[in-house]
Every structure is written in C-alpha cells, then in structure tokens.
Amino acid sequence: MPGLTLGDTIPNLEVDTTHGRLRFYDYIGDGWLILFSHPGDFTPVCTTELGKMAEYADKFAERGVKLLGLSCDDLHSHREWIKDIETYNNGYKVEFPIVADPKRELIQQLNMVDPDEKDAQGNQVPSRALHIIKLSFLNPASVGRNMDEVVRVLDALHKSAQHKVATPANWKPGDPVVISPSVSNEAAKQMFPQGYKSTHLPSNKDYLRFTHV
C-alpha cells in the first residue's frame, strides 16, 4: 500500500495498543483523531513530546479530538516507557493508547518513515509524522513538535469546517479569517451578517475579504 498523502483516507486498521486491540474508526467514533508517530521508546525527544501530548489532552478533548500514539516497540516496552513519561512530565497521565509496531509495518503503510534515520540494527524508524484528518505534519526525528501549533491548526480546521472561510498566514484564535473565493459578495452578506472588510489591491479583484466568525 502506498504511503498516505494529503487528502487520503486513513485505512480502518486493526492495531495492538496499550489499551488493547482496536480499530481506528471504532476508536475515533464521531470525532477527529490525531495520529502521531515516534522514532522509539526511551528516547529523549519522544519522552518530552508524549508528556506534552498528555498535558494538552484536555485541550484536544475540548475540540472533539482523540489521541493515538505509535512507536516501533512492543507493548511491554510502551508500558514501561509510560512510567518515565509521566514522571518526567510532572505526573500528567498518558491516558491515550500507544500502538505497538515492532515489525515496522504500520509506519510503512502510513508513510511515517524517516528516510535518514535508522536504529542501532539499521532498521528504518518513524519520522515525527502527525495526521489530523486531511492534514499532516512531518518533522525529522531530531525535531520535536510544537503542541501549541497543533492546537492552533485544530482551531483553524474547526473554523473552516463550520464556515466557508480559511485562515491567513500567522492566524491565531480571535484574529479575522478570510472568506472563501467561492462565496460571492452577495452570499457573503447573508452568511456573515456581522460584515466583512475587502482589501483594495492593484488587480481590483475583490478576493481578499476579512471577517470574524
């Protein structure tokens, strides 16, 4: 199976996790899922990241998002590693499941392989891949993720899912959003009764329209 790319659907895989065996879509239910991979258990950056995921778990839950980790080690290793994660990260509990992938099959299926990083045995390891529905972050194994950015992107996705808008560069919650070009000015007046502001441009094309939602 080729690796996942933007717009692909994650297959309904059945996997072994620290919470037992589960199928992706049974676990997701009606909400969203963040699936994130890690190069290995008992590694420094991964330990800090899993702790941050645990710390931010409530923020994700508020947004209807479940968490699912993945690391290329077995379940016994995961359970022992969780003790380190919780101790280092001020006792935040790792309450989300972590998938075991000792044969490195899932990271291949889900396009989560770092082409430049290998373990001591010469095996490929996962990149820091993170899939949110139609969005993917892909970091090399040496670069930890920014959890505030993950939350920011989730908020942006909620905005675009609920309204015909997109978020401009450097957008953060509370900032204005841009109205989709597919929405006419007449329709925009109906859809955004709070009003919007058009930006005058040399092209005289009225496509950069800001509003608050």
UniProtKB/TrEMBL annotation:
Gene3D superfamilies: Antioxidant, Horf6, Chain A, domain2, Glutaredoxin
GO MF entry, a single one: thioredoxin-dependent peroxiredoxin activity
Known EC number: 1.11.1.24
Entry keywords, A to Z: Antioxidant, Oxidoreductase, Peroxidase, Redox-active center
Cited CDD domains: PRX_1cys
Keyword Translocase recorded: no
Any one Gene Ontology cellular component term annotated for this protein: cytosol
Active site, UniProt feature: 46 (cysteine sulfenic acid (-soh) intermediate)
Thioredoxin domain segment(s): 4-159
Catalytic activity: a hydroperoxide + [thioredoxin]-dithiol = an alcohol + [thioredoxin]-disulfide + H2O
BP GO terms, sorted: cell redox homeostasis
Alphabetized Pfam families for the sequence: 1-cysPrx_C, AhpC-TSA
Role, per record: Thiol-specific peroxidase that catalyzes the reduction of hydrogen peroxide and organic hydroperoxides to water and alcohols, respectively. Seems to contribute to the inhibition of germination during stress.
PANTHER family: MCG48959-RELATED (PTHR43503), PEROXIREDOXIN-6 (PTHR43503:SF4)
Similarity-based family: Belongs to the peroxiredoxin family. Prx6 subfamily.
Protein name: Peroxiredoxin
Highest classification ranks of the organism: Eukaryota, Viridiplantae, Streptophyta, Embryophyta, Tracheophyta
